[in-house]
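User: I'm putting together notes for a lab meeting next week and I want to include a structural view of one of the chains we've been expressing. I don't have a solved structure, so I'd like a prediction I can at least talk through. The sequence is below, exactly as it appears in our construct file.
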Amino acid sequence: MKKFVLVIIFLFSIIVVKSQNITVFDQVSLQAVPDVFIYCNSISVVTNEEGTADFSNFTGHKEIIFQHPSYQKKVKSYSELKKANFKIYLTESPILIKDIVISASGWEQDKRQVPNKIAMINAGQISLQNPQTAADLLGVSGGVFIQKSQYGGGSPMIRGFAANRVLITVDGVRMNNAIFRSGNLQNVISIDAFSVNKTEVIFGAGSVIYGSDAVGGVMNFYTLKPTLSTREKPLIKSNVVSRYASASSEKTSHIDFRLGYKKWAFVSSFTFSDFGNLKMGSNGPDEYLRLEYVERIEGKDSIFINEDPQIQKFTSYQQLNLMQKIRFRPNNNWDFSFASHYSKTSDYARYDRLIRYENSLPRSAQWFYGPQVWAMNNLNITQSSENIFYNKFNLLIAQQHFEESRHDRDFLDVELYHRYEKVDVISANLDFEKKIKDKQRIFYGGEILLNKVGSTGNDENILTKETTPAPSRYPDGSSWNSFAAYLSYWRKINKQFSLQTGLRYNFIDLTSEFDTSFYHFPFTGARLKNDALTGSFGLNYSPVKQWLFKLNLSTAFRAPNIDDMGKVFDSGNGAVVVPNPNLKPEYAYNAELGITRLFSDKVEIDFSIFSILLNSAMVRRNFTLNNQDSILYNGEMSRVQAIQNSAHAFVYGCQADIEAILPFGFGFTSYFNYQKGIEELDDGSNAPLRHAAPAFGTSHLTYTRDKFKADFYINFSGSISYENLAPTEISKPYIYAINSEGLPYSPSWHTINVKLRYQLHNNIMLGFGAENLSNQRYRPYSSGIVAAGRNLIFSVKGIF
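Assistant: Thanks for the context. Below is the predicted structure for the 800-residue chain, given as structure tokens.
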């Protein structure tokens, strides 16, 4: 009997050992951390989505290592972990030594083996910085400059390029459509910052993988992913956030809910934001003050004195974001997911147009955008298989719908002009990955993009409410279609060298029919058929772990779209832009050299120099229509202009980053960007490039202890003198400060800021931010709106 009892006890102890799990948590948020690599000698495991892993094989070991790209490495003994009830807490690291990126090839790769410079913004940074919009989220990277024409905006500038020369993707789906314009573009705010889990920014040309528009860089947003349960019971999680910001009396509410079973998983997300009029700071140029405004009272346009000139009247707006995802994983080889996104804003004012004057009077009584709508449905199918053609393939089919409109009325005029645009996009991407042993990988695939543009216009008499047909902004019914195939190859040549190269062929077909009832064009339609071949060559050299050298040579292109070829619009400086049916793609040639130095896994310094040459650049130039250089547009004689392949542009610069883990829970990061752009003019002379931002950057000192994290940081931007302003910027003096000679310029600025995060309880996180503590009055380069003054941010997050 005694032997039987001993056998039972022995068997029970084996069962207990075999079922022993360890759980890894974030030190501040107390949330479980998935994908932690745990190893000792030849034993290794990885934590699942719930942050747990089988720990049975580590019994008795003295040095067990816990490693994750976003956290500092930690070493513990089995006995120490047993005393802690097999729970361990990791601290976020500013140095992402072995992080995994997707953007460079569309598949997971070690960041150190990718020749491109890539900035990452992870979930921890997003949670701490608590950005207001997806545009502000990009600013967290330290390498993207954000321009804002109005409060409901955010136009990213990367290495001297912006708008339709940089590319935005959401979960792998291209967001750029056929009417993305060359002027500052604010569509990125349609993405819900609260639903973003991670963002990657590729600097420089990215056309081999992403096609047209990826000239200056690519911004990839990855949203919350449905999580499958690894246990018998369902995985249920939810987050509820409430946020308030003082500078605009912003009130935001967010909730997301996740439900996971063994094979099925779901994510639902809802965000609503209400932004009031934005208040600027007290210390800065008086030219920025909003001294007066126009309002229509009792049927008459009147000018009123602004009681508080720091309040930017009519900048308020609202925004709604919804997301639903469904995931089905029947086995380890197949994974299906469906996602639906929806975003809609209220009307919002084009602020920079409301502060223009003509003959000492406001030029516009009204200038606002109608609701900006973005809807996307996509189906993603991934399959793993060991065959001669691929190890994995991914099929991504998406349908998108965009709506936007413009509405403006001159001061004392009764005609309100309305222009409406809709774009429907269907896309399909088929991507394959093939591993050849462990040292070679091939990525290949194809893409189809189908764009259909709807555009209408009418003019309204605000007294009689009568409307009359008016010219549309774009040729109604236009199409822009793209077909592409690409091949990319990566090889680990030896321990020191790795190579990545690729080619892409694109064919673009554009069709437009012009309405000649309003303008007597010398043509009734246009058909553009263009093709483009782009390539890349990248080499990484790491003689030892502490040093990494990167060389990247690549080309990119941007094909003419409907906005380039078919738009008719008032450029805002007494000119009207008309269609040009003879456009061709523009090409960019990119060269970059990067050096990374790592000191004892505690300090990383990264430095890159780059240059980009843009040939046959599509730019706005003087033009003739029916042999006339001016036409009557909206009742005003306007200079005729058109987009033409008539320029070259050259951008060069550098980026310098430092990331350090300091003693006693401190960390330090700093990012600096310098770019200089030159554009060729009509007369053959050179001028500054419009979207080359001044030198800018950010420096952060962080402190982490137990459930608390703090970030004290400075954002800064250099100045641009009158002599270095682009001609198109000089024509907008109303958005700039005035120097001692009475000429417009963009002053330098800096802000002092702090962000705090405290985990009050397992289920409650408190956030606090104080932005622009010194209450500076500044306007980021080329922006229409003045940035927020001192801004206090309070947030509460419930985690269930």
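A couple of points you could mention at the meeting. Residues 87 and 220 are 34 Å apart (CA to CA). Helices lie at 2-18, 78-83, 123-129, 134-139, 207-210, 351-354, 562-566, 727-730.

User: Perfect, that's what I needed.
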